[in-house]
Amino acid sequence: MALLVLLSLLYSLCVLTITCIPISSFTSSPPSADNVCTLQNSFPPSFVAKGDYVIGGIFPLHYNQEMPDLNGTYKALPVNCNGFDPRAFRWAQTMRLAVEEINQRADLLPNYTLGYKIFDSCAYPLTGQRAALAVLNGLSEDDSPMCQGASPLLAVIGESGSAQSIVVSRILQPFRIPMISYFSSCACLTDRREFPTFFRVIPNDDYQVRVKAIAQLLIRFNWTWVGLVRGDHEYGRFAVQGLLRELQGTKVCVAYQEMIPLLYNRKRALEILEVMRSSSAKVVVVFSAEGEMTPFLRDYMTQNITGIQWVASEAWVTASVFTGSEFYPFLGGTIGFGIRKGHISRLSLYLQTVNPWLYPNNNLVKELWEALYGCNPSPSPGSQLPPCSGQESLLEQHSAYMNTSSPRVAYNVYKAVYAVAYSLHNLLLCQPGTGPFQNNSCAQRKNIHPWQLQYYLQEVTFNIGEEEVNFDLKGDSIPYYDILNWQRGTDGNIEFVNVGLFDGTKPVGEELVIQEDRIMWAGHQSEVPVSVCSASCLPGSRKAVRRGEPVCCFDCVPCDSGKISNQTNSIECTLCPEDFWSNNDRAACIPKKVEFLAYDSLGIALTVISVVGACLTIAVFAVFFYYRKTIIVRVNNSELSFFILFALTLCFLCSLLFIGEPTLWSCLLRHTAFSITFSLCISCILGKTLVVLAAFTATRPGDNIMKWLGPKQQRSIIFISTLIQVVICAAWLIDAPPSPSPNTQYERSKIILECSVGSSIAFWCVLGYIGLQACLCFVLAFLARMLPGNYNEAKSITFSMLIFCAVWLAFIPAYISSPGNYADAVESFAILASSFGLLFCLFAPKCYIMLLKPEKNTKHHLMGK
């Protein structure tokens, strides 16, 4: 920017040179005879009117320019401005209207009149500086009194672009002339040290960008992947910087940043358009002025790029040049923040009074007719346009000039002129001795200095319509924005439809009010367009940022088991509480499924087998009781047989304790009941084994070995053997009894409700004691297996103990490795298998003889050997 100012200053000194400066702005010393102003070149104003007090106006009446040869060999030529802007011309006419209204009022500046000088800046800082220097001078050498007395120029209304305003403000600053901008919103202009005389009636970019206007819009519609395009000037640079600051910490990322050259370059513009075409960002935010946007958007239309949702800054969102029907397919749906509209009652009629007949020597009026009608009201040789009368009627269809239904920038111009008028009015009302200046003095009415007017401008407060106008300490006004949407009108042209409001006076977070149902989006769609780098991660997944890419570009990773994300775009998954687990979608924690050996298919099968086993045992008991007087029952100790059958019945029924939801009582009974009943059963078999072994090993008649194994001794052996197991179980229940326990470690997605054994030592002692009994019984029966006899019960006992030991040896690894409720099923199965083994091995042969071979159930047959 410093380089631009330097170049513009050098050029301006070449084009327009004066030999003195208005030293009266700094001192009241009279000028010497040598201080004679000599006008070296001329830059005539577009419009001029004399008055008691003069204000200047600078407007971008053209939006393009061609630079002359600046090689320094010849006298510098003026900049060739082209691209007439009817909209800016309307702004200039609004200033003229406001001055005329003020001069006609009796309550504002009575007995005084305002004059004006309006210049064209061509929307370019270089030409804007030339206009600033020109506005300081008189119209001729005779009309240049700036070297003596106070400056006849009290204030300047301008400029539109921030870059031009920076240049103009710095030119005016040494002369302490206040400047009121109607369209420069760059936040940089709030610096009172650099721009002490700058005011504006448009909100600055701190309100538009830094205080969440566009940022809130992007966040509201979930546009997280956007492109930024700006003009090559301070307005665009500071606006983008402010937006980037505001977007920090939000979910919005910038896909690209591009800059439209100040001197439009079509090659560079096509490069920018190619970036837009190839990017996945479908929302483009543009901070630019109407001048460079016009050729840029025309090139955009020629490239046939579709699907772009434009977000416009206030500098071009109400540009009438884009309202033609040919623009709608490409620009329809544009949304942006526009300057708040106002009402100027006489503006439409006043604009219609401008025609080439009233201003025959004004080239701007001629260019207006050429722009609106495509004809030349002043035919000249070489003209390529057809002639016209110059008396054509200005109609509403000429919206670029005649659009007065919702004036925005023009309304700002209107307010700026009235701000100067009210400030000057207050200055003239000052009573001597009560003034704000040194020694309570007032300004001299015929010798008012601009800095004196600035004091009153800083303090002014007035109303236009229902709007209050004033300036804060930084020269800014109250921030208001209309939210505008470009929609197709009934005639096919684009209309600016108000769909909301941004009110800077409201609390943070409540400034933005939008009627979404009234918005028509790009492509004539009613649904909000999507502009994201990556699609949102649905609940049940989390975002995983791609390395080396912006945070808006990510992959969606499903949550692990046991973790959930119940929000869209979750950064991480949350672990479910201990008693809960994630559902199939990983979107909610649900109570874990409680599992135990229930009465399902497996539980019912085990129950049926248990009941069948118990019934078979009872049936065998009945057979034995029916044949209790036969030799085969009597010789094999019927009492012990009945004890064994009773114990086996209990063993079969014990397996039922392992089925169903574990409770305190079922846990207490499970292992103790089965261990005691099995000990009882094995003790009985051990007693029978001892009897068999003693009976068959007596070698001589009269041996007394059997007297030590009589019925009483047998009962004692059974009682003592069983009592030992009872004592072990009692100690177990007293010290560390089994209890229901939820197991969440084996399978984290379920709660395995099981019976904790309480004491592992006691549990293995119980099993160990049963194993010891079984092994002892097996050894004794194995020793007696070869004893003579047609029916040797030792063989049956040997086989039964062999099956019993095999079952429980297989049980140990199966029990340890079985998950959850299957451990109970394994133990229940082991009980049933060993019980069936004992039942069939011990009693099946005898039942076979009693029921099917009764001829063998005789003493003669039994004692055959």
Shape: rod-shaped
| Spatial strand arrangement across the major sheet | 10-9-11-12-13-16-17-18
Number of strands: 27
| Name of the CATH homologous superfamily of the largest domain | Response regulator
**Can you name the CATH architecture of the largest domain?**
3-Layer(aba) Sandwich
CATH class wording of the largest domain: Alpha Beta
Percent of residues in β-strands: 15-25%
Specify the biggest β-sheet.
8 strands, mixed
SS field, number of helical segments: 24
Protein model, in words:
By secondary structure, this protein is an alpha/beta fold. It folds into four domains: about 260 residues, Rossmann fold (3-Layer(aba) Sandwich), CATH 3.40.50; about 170 residues, Rossmann fold (3-Layer(aba) Sandwich); about 50 residues, no CATH class; about 220 residues, Rhodopsin 7-helix transmembrane proteins (Rhopdopsin 7-helix transmembrane proteins). The chain is about 40% helix and about 15% strand. The protein has 24 helices and 27 strands. An eight-stranded mixed sheet has the order 10-9-11-12-13-16-17-18, sandwiched between helices. The chain starts with a helix and ends with a helix.
